[in-house]
# Entry
Amino acid sequence: MRRAGRLLGRAVLLALCATLVGCAPSSTLSLTATELTADHDFVERASVDADANALAPYDFSLELMRRCSGETAGRSVLVSPLSVLYALAMAESGATGQTLAQMERATGMGADELVGALQAYLQISGSQDSPVSLANSVWLRDSGDLSVEANFLETCGGRLAAQVFAAPFDDSTVTDVNAWVEDRTHGMIPSVLGHLSDQAQFLLVNALAFEGAWLNPFSRELVTQETFTLEDGTERDVEMMRSLEDTYLEGELATGFSKPYEGGTYRFVGLLPNEGVTVSELLNNLDGETLRDLLVPVESTDVDVGLPKFSLSYDIELSGALRSLGMTDAFDASRADFCAWARLTPGRSSSAG
# Structure
């Protein structure tokens, strides 16, 4: 039980498609999102300033979880708000008008504040011994007519440390993107992209992997064969890992524990709804403040933990969840406004469709 395993790997892909005419500021883009996900706990670190934005990552995490749960009824949900926020931050750096305003309302932070928080997190997680592998990339169609705005590249390539690639957007680009994601997730995600639309002009990709070893591993001698009862009453035979932990969590609707990984920067958090409270009821009654408070340990209290061994894979097409968060214009080709990321050479016109 030394390692939490090749625990988490996820990638978020945003494809920007456009019909651009000259340098007109009314140029529009439609945004589609595809996601392969795994969880990464970021709420303790994503906002580094004790200001009005401190609760925003908590609120966004809960809202995203609720929306994804609503679209995958009956399935377990495993999402990474951190990875989604990196992809959205890159997209916001090219958005203007109502498209940008809707995205800022959904994330709970202004575009610059979000980039600042994520930039700080990159510095925190960038050490060689960090269990987190986090990478961003920008792929743009190699076209002589297309001129990418300097501010967009400065934000993505500078502050968010994204690699920037010019690519032909053919089958070779599909292969290259998948290879990049596989490398950055340590082989956990071998493929994230199946094909490229003829309309695609930009790809914004975040890849995240977490491979952590427990600071105090579960003892093999304490692993027992037990029956685990699911919320719907279904019973399953599981290998139950047992331990005594010194970080006990307690709220009005749930109790739980946290268990540190090596280095102490990251912790696994497990929450168990109280008797008579469903997982959905717990999720629907949490907000950023109550979640933050729930993660504060009860002083001088130990907890006897039983955690079943499990593995889980999950994927979702995120556009529906993001629309339900209020990002409607970004997915409407007639309304989306991403003209801040690029311009066409004056006197030329181009249809990406």
In short: The two ends are 52 Å apart (CA to CA). The first helix runs from residue 56 to 71. The chain has two domains: 8-212+313-351, 220-308.
